[in-house]
Specification:
The chain has about 350 residues and is mostly helical. Helix content is about 80%, strand content about 0%. InterPro entries: SPEF2_D5 (IPR054517), Sperm_flagellar-bone_growth (IPR052634). It comes from Hymenochirus boettgeri (Congo dwarf clawed frog).
């Protein structure tokens, strides 16, 4: 707005200056016209021929006629001068009017040009803004689509890993339960045989042994299963405490069986020796000294020979390659992954 007002003030000053110049030019033209008229009158007066005066009677009439002629000429000259002045004034006013119109038209043209430039600039800025907004929208949509695609891929991968883990765990549990069932059946068969030999103190008849084998191969139990009440989904504190006590007793029974102590201790007449008690602190020192050759233990070379034969690098490498080709490495890895969450109990060093 300030720039437009300044432009208008400059145009008005130019118009006033032009008007002043036109007025000065008109005055100068008027002066030149009067000067020229005076020169013409002076030449006319100089060209007048002096005629002798007529007689008295004729002089009066001639004087009156001259006066009338002079008045007439003066009136004509005044009329001519007035017409000339009016014509010059009309010309100057018309020129002044044309100049004003030209200046106004030029001003209007400049204003229209400035408005057109401003409007085109506004249109250009609006188009650039809309283009930038469209690019930003497309970038935001593309980014959102990428995030959604990554989230979907992550969910699919998590679902795939979860399904794979569940399948591996189900396969592991299936094999574990299968092996456990087979081991239980073997234990039942062994226990059944031992009970029969202990009660009858005789060998088992072939027919009975074949029947037991058929039951074993068919997967039928040799003993009737006892009814055990399972724990509820939300056991009480007393039930959990009783379960912990039972687990503790089972662990103690297993330790006694492994160490051949308590009820599992062999009779003195049998000549069997119980295994040496495990030393949790210094149990590894003996093996370490045997391997390193420290102190005065005997049999170091023999021990190392057996270790070399049992744990040769080539033998271990060959076994590892065979396990890899048979797919045993994957099974072991799966079992290790599944057993990571299970606490290790009763580990003795």
């Amino acid at each position: 707005m300030k720039k437009l007002a300044q432009i208008q003030n400059d145009e008005l000053r130019k118009m006033q200056k032009i008007r002043e110049e036109l007025r000065i030019q008109d005055i100068e033209k008027l002066r030149r016209a009067r000067r020229r008229q005076n020169e013409i009158m002076a030449r006319i007066q100089a060209a007048i021929v002096q005629i002798p005066k007529p007689p008295t009677n004729r002089n009066l009439k001639a004087i009156e006629a001259q006066k009338m002629l002079k008045k007439k000429k003066e009136a004509e000259e005044a009329f001519r001068e007035e017409q000339l002045i009016n014509r010059l004034m009309r010309q100057s006013q018309q020129e002044r009017r044309i100049a004003v119109q030209l200046m106004y038209a030029r001003h209007e043209k400049e204003v229209m040009r400035q408005n057109r430039i401003l409007r085109e600039k506004q249109f250009q800025e609006r188009r650039e803004k809309e283009f930038r907004e469209a690019l930003d929208r497309e970038a935001a949509i593309q980014k959102q689509e990428n995030l959604e695609r990554e989230e979907e891929i992550r969910k699919i991968q998590e679902l795939h890993d979860q399904i794979a883990a569940e399948r591996a765990e189900a396969r592991y549990r299936k094999h574990y339960h299968m092996c456990q069932e087979i081991m239980n059946q073997i234990l039942d068969l062994v226990t059944k045989t031992g009970e029969y030999r202990e009660i009858t103190n005789r060998l088992i008849p072939n027919k009975l042994m074949r029947e037991w084998k058929e039951f074993f191969f068919a997967g039928y139990p040799l003993y009737e299963k006892a009814s055990i009440d399972p724990l509820p989904s939300e056991p009480t504190t007393e039930q959990l405490l009783e379960l912990e006590k039972q687990n503790l007793l089972d662990d103690n029974d297993y330790e006694e069986y492994k160490d051949m102590a308590g009820e599992w201790s062999p009779p003195q007449s049998s000549g069997l020796k119980a295994p040496a008690p495990n030393n949790n602190v210094l149990g590894y020192v003996v093996a370490d000294c045997c391997v390193l050759g420290k102190l005065y233990y005997s049999g170091k070379s023999t021990c190392l020979t057996h270790l070399t034969q049992g744990f040769c690098v080539e033998t271990l490498l060959q076994e590892a390659l065979q396990a890899y080709h048979h797919g045993e490495m994957e099974v072991i890895r799966t079992v290790l992954i599944l057993n990571k969450k299970k606490p290790m109990k009763n580990i003795r060093y």
